[in-house]
Design brief:
about 270 residues; alpha/beta; Rossmann fold; six-stranded parallel β-sheet; about 40% helix
């Protein structure tokens, strides 16, 4: 590592289900150009590329939230200073997990999967995950979304043409176990989706929602915000009108990235 990169604040991007670290490539370039030492984290079982992972889906199977969080924590441990962690969907849940463990200087959770304690379950969120959790045999499998399912869960707010392009470029299998863990969290006092929301000394957290998101509706993100109500640590929320779950990979991603950069600079990070 060069002395220049060692002096730049690390930013680690964390993908969610059905996407690969490659999906963050435009963000990584932008944040590097903006003065950060940006990288995208891998999940256990990820191959080097989206295409290679599609060809080896069995490597992803069986991993749950705790194993994925610890895998990423190991990547953070090799950095010269605590990073900013930016995650999308289940990556947003993981970002909160890592921030609550004081492994990050700050976190931005974009359309984050529900942490334990969030009880809001809009019908659209149930429909988005039902193809996976309706089959209990999927628990230890890696599961893919069909193009129609991806359209509903991710790309409902963009054109059909862009939706087809995003599916072809980014969609890949994902471990089903995290979805089962989120679905049963209310019944499990030691749920894997539990986050230390009471940590008063943690860094600042920004929660972002897409107004038209089917998979993680804004009500779910506001539910996460409420979970942090007892902590004096900074927790902020913003919703973006007209945006769906694909807001970090579709053609409108620069708006979201610009807001993240502005928020970080406003916090002196």
């Amino acid at each position: 590592m060069s002395s220049e990169s060692a002096s730049r604040r690390p930013v680690v991007f964390v993908h969610g289900l059905w996407l690969h670290a490659e999906s963050w490539s435009p963000w990584v370039r932008l944040f590097r150009e903006s003065g950060y030492d940006a990288v995208a984290a891998s999940w256990p079982g990820d191959s080097e590329t989206t295409e290679a992972t599609r060809n080896n889906p069995g490597a992803l199977a069986g991993y749950g939230v705790a194993e994925i969080a610890d895998h990423i924590a190991g990547q953070l441990a090799g950095l010269p200073q605590k990073p900013i962690v930016i995650g999308h969907s289940f990556g947003g849940l993981l970002a909160q997990n890592l921030l609550g463990r004081d492994l990050a200087a700050a976190a931005i959770a974009i359309d984050p999967a529900p942490i334990k304690g969030v009880l809001e379950l809009p019908a659209s969120a149930l429909r988005a995950v039902l193809p996976v959790v309706a089959n209990p045999f999927n628990f230890n499998r890696a599961v893919s979304l069909t193009e129609a399912q991806f359209r509903y869960a991710f790309t409902n707010a963009v054109s059909e043409a862009e939706s087809r392009e995003l599916y072809a470029r980014y969609a890949m299998p994902a471990p089903a176990r995290p979805l089962f863990q989120a679905a049963t969290a209310a019944l499990n006092p030691n749920a894997a989706t539990r986050v230390n929301v009471a940590n008063a000394s943690r860094g600042p957290l920004l929660l972002l929602a897409g107004e038209l998101d089917h998979t993680v509706p804004s009500a779910v993100v506001r539910g996460a915000l409420k979970q942090y109500g007892a902590s004096p640590a900074v927790t902020e929320y913003k919703a973006f009108e007209g945006r769906g779950h694909s807001l970090v990979i579709d053609s409108g991603w620069p708006e979201i990235a610009a807001h993240c950069l502005s928020w970080l600079r406003g916090r002196g990070l």
